[in-house]
Amino acid sequence: MIINQTSIAFHEAGDGLPVVLVHGGVSDLRTWGAQFEPLAEHYRTIAYSRRYHCPNPPISSDTPDPIQTHVDDLAELIETLGASPAHVVGHSWGGLIALLLALQRPQILRSLVLIEPPVVSMHVTVPPTIGQMTRLLIRSPKLAVAIAKLGGGALMPAEKAFRKGDDKSAVEYFGRGVLGKHRFASLSAERYEQVWENRGPERALALYAGFPDLRTADFSQISIPVLLITGSESPSIFLLLIDELSQRLPNARRQVILGASHIVHEDAPQALNDAVLSFLEDVG
């Protein structure tokens, strides 16, 4: 399918209200393998690979990858497939894309399920200034420390490695930062291959300041139902970010999935599926 002048791969199955699955970074539509069929038993389920992610045409090494392009792609996909208004389930960067769409085009959404969206830039720019971090440290010390840890231990080293052309080290810094070093080390060969095949957009994000500035975003205007999901074994930054986001969304509920890291839907698929299906049934 052609969306905004680029080829976008997607899978679709089932009948009923539409549910669109939006994957995160270093991933593609394969990440939803354990969700697709269970959801399709009850809903018209659509999973797609975002622009530049397998099996779509790859991104070139010198091309920026602004998040707004992905927001526009998601909106166009929903409308092209006649899926408006849609329930949207977004993981990580995909959750951030879905959240931005809710700010910009709420009329094409029915509800959101956001699995650990990295809303760091609600608080500071990425990378942050010393002044921003000082003010955050005064207001929310735990969050400031967690952001500093993510930046110093994952994002900055990954950027440096990408600039040197050392993609392997960059992927490892990033993976350990968002999953934890033990979870990253335990990825299967097949899952690591998916990470490796989709490292190009992650490189663009690291090298071209891909995070949007959300410090003035008014999330209180998002009135649709939102389910915020975190994994109990994720790095603490995701729990802290969800704490903050839940206070800004007027119609949000939260759920922690036990035993799961940042890739909640892969680590604990049955629990995640049960949570999503229960939420969708409740909101209608």
Automatic annotation (TrEMBL):
The keyword Hydrolase applies. Keywords: Hydrolase. It holds the Pfam family Abhydrolase_1. Residues 18-269 form the AB hydrolase-1 domain. The keyword Transferase does not apply. GO terms for molecular function: hydrolase activity. Coiled coil: none annotated. This is Alpha/beta hydrolase. It comes from Sedimentitalea todarodis.
